[in-house]
Write a structure and sequence with these properties.
single chain, two-stranded parallel ribbon, Rossmann fold
Length: 313
């Protein structure tokens, strides 16, 4: 069961400009926390509505070692490390942000006179580091945290996240609204989901309060044993009140598209999302959150049908 939080403790947050980070920041502010965020460009940073004028402090910087990390962590009781790279062409790109960035923060924590609860926002992908550059970088970051952080730590491994201003899964629902569900893999593959509001609630109102934990948490929306694509099809048909056709994408077509996408992004100087490694993640048969790693005394409140409807309000 989620609980309301009222607090004036100071919490540090990285990745506050991103999809998950923005939701966490809003939840932290609404819960009464004072928040110190690390952002690359304060001029373009989107600030939420504050309860008091001193509730938010913005530190300019990145995840490289430097005095800005000491400023970020000064006097904080907890650090929520949400920043990370999800797009890239080679391992070194993911390693720089996801692994070396985590290492820099942990080293900065060692310089703090107070014990800092390090909350790492990781990914279910870390369970299979052999699949992709991303999954390997998340695994390496988790390992470094567990072995080197001197204080308390928690690792949150979300499954696929949807809702809010998220864009990665939005096309899936848009196509279902039009009557098509494209299958990137075997229809029997299983995976968990979680709405962004539930994830933010878990991290802020549950994990942040469990200051003595040294634990990995794999949250989900409470749908037992995750979903197959057939179940997504059934739920989508009910939500949109229409017939939805299941269409399997040919493997060769996806592989060609991934390789072409990498080349185009390289020419344009952009970081690709769809890569051959990402296809390996998509095709993995089991991305179901482990029941034994569920958060204690917490349950999600947004089922998938209501979560999908909330996107179109």
């Amino acid at each position: 069961m989620s609980t309301a939080v009222t607090s004036n403790k100071t919490v540090a947050l990285t990745g506050a400009s991103g999809f998950v980070g923005q939701s966490l920041l809003k939840k932290l502010i609404a819960s009464g926390h004072k928040v110190r965020v690390l952002v690359r460009n304060p001029d373009t940073f989107k600030q939420p509505r504050l309860q008091t004028s001193d509730q938010l402090e913005v530190i300019q910087g990145n995840l490289k070692p430097g005095p800005h990390l000491g400023q970020l962590l000064q006097g904080v009781e907890a650090l929520i490390h949400c920043a990370g790279r999800v797009r890239g062409q080679c391992y070194s790109e993911f390693e720089e942000d996801n692994v070396h960035g985590t290492m820099a923060l942990i080293d900065a924590c060692k310089q703090s006179p107070a014990s800092i609860h390090f909350i790492q926002i990781s990914s279910l992908a870390s369970r299979q580091p052999q699949l992709s550059h991303y999954s390997k970088s998340k695994y390496e970051a988790e390992q470094y945290l567990q072995k080197n952080h001197l204080g308390r730590w928690s690792i949150i491994r979300p499954p696929a996240i949807y809702g809010g201003d998220e864009q990665e899964m939005r096309p899936l629902f848009d196509w279902m609204q039009r009557g098509l569900l494209w299958l990137p893999c075997n229809a029997n593959n299983r995976f968990s989901l979680i709405h962004i509001n539930d994830l933010a609630e878990l991290i802020v109102s549950h994990s942040l309060e469990q200051l003595s934990l040294h634990k990995i948490i794999e949250p989900d929306d409470g749908h037992e044993n995750g979903y197959s694509w057939y179940e997504i099809h059934t739920i989508g048909s009910s939500v949109f009140k229409r017939k939805i056709h299941l269409l399997a994408l040919p493997p060769l077509l996806l592989e060609t598209a991934a390789r072409v996408n990498v080349v185009i992004c390289r020419l344009l100087g952009k970081s690709p999302m769809l890569t051959p490694e990402k296809l390996s993640e998509l095709r993995f048969p089991n991305w179901v959150a482990a029941a034994e790693l569920a958060a204690e005394n917490w349950i999600a409140v947004i089922p998938l049908n209501k979560g999908i409807l909330s996107i179109y309000k």
